[in-house]
Specification:
419 residues; alpha/beta; FAD/NAD(P)-binding domain; D-Amino Acid Oxidase, Chain A, domain 2; 12 helices; 18 strands; 28% helix
Amino acid sequence: MGSHKSQKQSDVIIIGAGIIGVSSALQLAERGLSVTVIDRQPPCEGASFGNAGVISPWSCVPQSVPGLWRRIPKWLIDPEGPIFIRKGYAASFLPWALRFLAAGKADKVDGIGDAMMALSRNSPSHYRALLSDRTEVELIQDSVYVFAYKQAEQANLDHFGWKMRRQRDVPLSLISAGALKEREPDISDAYQAAILIHEQARALNPSALGKAVAEKAKAHGVQFIQAETKALKSEAGGWLVECQDSDFRANNIVLAAGVWSASLLRPFGYKLPLEAERGYHLLCRNPGVTIHNSLMDVEHMCVASQMQAGIRIAGTAEFAGIEADADNRRAFIFKKALKNLFPAINTEQAEPWMGRRPTFPDSLPCIGPVDGVDGLFAAFGHGHFGLSQAPTTGRIIADCLTGTTPDIDLTPYRTDRFK
């Protein structure tokens, strides 16, 4: 293996150039550290590319909640349902699924919800501060999050998730069909009510938003290396990162490699329940209709949003492991949901996409020092919430590496919580 012997040792190497990695890189560089980011892809081309663009300061409802198990069998037998387990993967998936259901017990969800919200709070204003001197700040649009219901009686603020939000003072309102039509004129008349989450934002191009953060990081001296990390090795005076063609050295490592983080940690005694929760989206170019907010179709559990390139609808959770090929039929199922939402939409120019959400059973990431491994820091496993949680995660990482005590209790995000 070739080695760049003359290469200067960085203060920090970040493995992973998704939205978490680039947010961490910028905030570390702003505090004067020398930073190298290593990823086999350009910045924000993986899961950070294809999400629904929701930037929510109010994320506080875990994926697993009490009573969810009653709905899962129906979802699993529906070939167009929101959850799909690839044939042959069920046995591998079962231990994670049991942990997922256990995390949804009534005595656990409140603590998880608080820990989620601590990372999401003020995320729109944090992005605007990160990009205040760049034109891409205009990619962040003020928005309402619209949860649309076909049956008015189902839009009930006493349901569990809405109760969790109300307990945390999330700004909510319940509106009728007429008020929904005023906000979203192109929506189908079949939708009879909606619950709105206010004071949100949405990204008109999540990848471009992340790339803008990366470009600002470069302007602060961050070096980006396109290479695949093969191994991390602790050595005297720091760390060695072994890549395919070169080695790189640093005093500290931040692991922000999404679903690939768990395998890089395994040599250090960690066997983490990190699942590649595969999400799909469908992008409709020239849609012929307009969406003004982030819009959740509650029945189909998918989110539609207006992007620079067209209308994107995203969602679904497919479990098939990391390496399985995409099954684009999962994306094209969204055509039906889009037609339900917007009868006049043009779906002829529809492009599928698949990305891997790094998801832990308790809906929380690993952030902070890796227990028992000096100079190694975790910043991965944000699941559905990475876009909203990236600015605060980056700030926590910058605090940890500069001797500042984070203003958030890191106990819920400990890497050893699964032991």
